[in-house]
Amino acid sequence: xxxxxxxxxxxxxxxxxxxxxxxxxxxxxxxxxxxxxxxxxxxxxxxxxxxxxxxxxxxxxxxxxxxxxxxxxxxxxxxxxxxxxxxxxxxxxxxxxxxxxxxxxxxxxxxxxxxxxxxxxxxxxxxxxxxxxxxxxxxxxxxxxxxxxxxxxxxxxxxxxxxxxx
Length: 166
Description:
The chain has 166 residues and is mostly helical. It has one domain (3-165). 77% of the residues lie in helices and 0% in strands. The longest helix has 24 residues, at 3-26. It is globular and about 45 Å long. The chain starts with a helix and ends with a helix.
């Protein structure tokens, strides 16, 4: 693995962590985060060994984007979550996207269970910026949840699984 590839992976992690932080604070993932992931992806792909499949990878990301748009239309996910999920799936690659989706869903379920408890909701409310709840409710979410946290944790766990299994 080249030094540039390692730096890009660290940048990927930092961008995801920033997205999760923004989602917790304001229920909003800045468009700059998925855009940066999208712009940096070709450089990441060029430095990867083995080579990333350049046809299957964007097709899988487009499929995830399409599924995410349907979930957004149903009011299940926010638009920022959908964009972040699709952009992160590029970096994960088609061979590991099922693991990414599964890890994210499990972590999202655990996060939802925590937020349903009084203690979990109170702790989350202390982290949230004032006015964020009203903005999320204006978009139609009754009990908003920062799913960017689950996406970030799922992506990082998926990327770390080969390292942890050695």
